[in-house]
UniProtKB/TrEMBL annotation:
It is a multi-pass membrane protein. This is RDD family protein. The keyword Metal-binding does not apply. It comes from Gracilibacillus salitolerans. Residues 5-161 form the RDD domain. InterPro entries: RDD.
């Protein structure tokens, strides 16, 4: 029987995944700056809605899709989980549960994007601050749940019915 991953293992895997995502985002920034420079002689002006769409379609959605495929596949693990020899355990329907898990897992990130982008266009009004606050509270809740729960599951795991195991 598989044992539950430790807090330390989960946090190291999270750090590795964060480094991979950060590398992708830095490469994306460089590529897009080059495209903007070659095609438009600089970064074009975008509306709030366009910026929201660009952020979602180029950063959050690709990461959700990639992580869902990786965790829903035969190895059931992201880059960090593979390095730490962990995997996500599913009772059934791994692709569906992986998708649910990753949508929930990256929801705070998306809400944070939405809040910051909205704030840039609307002087950080109540909506921007509410979205940012919800984002931070959810991220904090996820971390606290991994720390205090004996099975180290967070909201995304509970929604998807998954457990990270050794």
């Amino acid at each position: 029987m598989e044992s539950v991953a430790t807090r330390k293992q989960r946090f190291i895997a999270l750090l590795i995944d964060w480094l991979c995502i950060s590398t992708y985002l830095i490469l994306l920034l460089g590529i897009m700056q080059l495209v903007y420079w070659l095609a438009f002689n600089g970064t074009p002006a975008f509306s709030n809605g366009q910026t929201q769409l660009i952020a979602t379609l180029t950063s959050v959605l690709p990461v959700i899709i990639l992580f869902s495929i990786m965790e829903g596949g035969s190895r059931a693990s992201t880059f960090g989980k593979r390095i730490k020899r962990l995997k996500v355990s599913y009772p059934d329907h791994p692709i569906m549960r992986s998708t649910i898990r990753n949508i929930a897992k990256f929801l705070p990130w998306q809400l944070g994007h939405m809040g910051v982008i909205h704030g840039m266009y609307h002087d950080f009004n109540w909506l921007a601050m509410t979205l940012i606050s919800i984002s931070m509270l959810l991220a904090f809740l996820y971390i606290i749940m991994v720390v205090i729960r004996q099975d180290h599951r967070h909201v995304a795991d509970l929604l998807a019915g998954t457990t990270v195991v050794k």
